[in-house]
Amino acid sequence: MKRIGFYSGSFDPVTLGHTDVIERACRLVDKLVIGVGVHTEKAPLFTAPERIDMLKGETKVIARSTGTEIEIVTFANLAVDAAAVHEAAVIFRGTDTRADGTKTDHHGTCGNARARGIDLQCVEQDGARGRCCPCGDRFSRDRGYGRGNSSRDVCGRAD
Fold this sequence. Notes:
It contains six helices and six strands; from the N terminus they run βαβαβαβαββαα. By secondary structure, the protein is of the alpha/beta class. It has one domain: 3-Layer(aba) Sandwich (Rossmann fold). α1 (16-26) crosses α2. The model is unreliable at 126-159 (pLDDT under 50).
């Protein structure tokens, strides 16, 4: 059975943090669906087609080096609903530190995802290196190790 993951964002523009999460997510799944959020109430810097083109350019090497199929789609509803439409078993979320020192909060997404049988894998961004947070350890253990990866390969920390 193909392991499918979902990673969403505005990608306005695509950043090194985004590509870091994408690269590490690709180590855990056979296919990664990247959802570009399109919301009528927001005024993005780049159009959805421009953001898709940027993502295609930035993910081509990642897909080739990891052997992961990458599909880029748009969505206007909740990320967890879009993940379900694409039959994702896991949603990847990047976390970062805000200007006030607090971390982004994914508790709402986590509850909604688990209610639909989808795991949530948070990836804490630490500069160019990342670490996985505990909410995704089961997915890392069950799926990541199955592809021959150690926990250091999967999430940047030792077993």
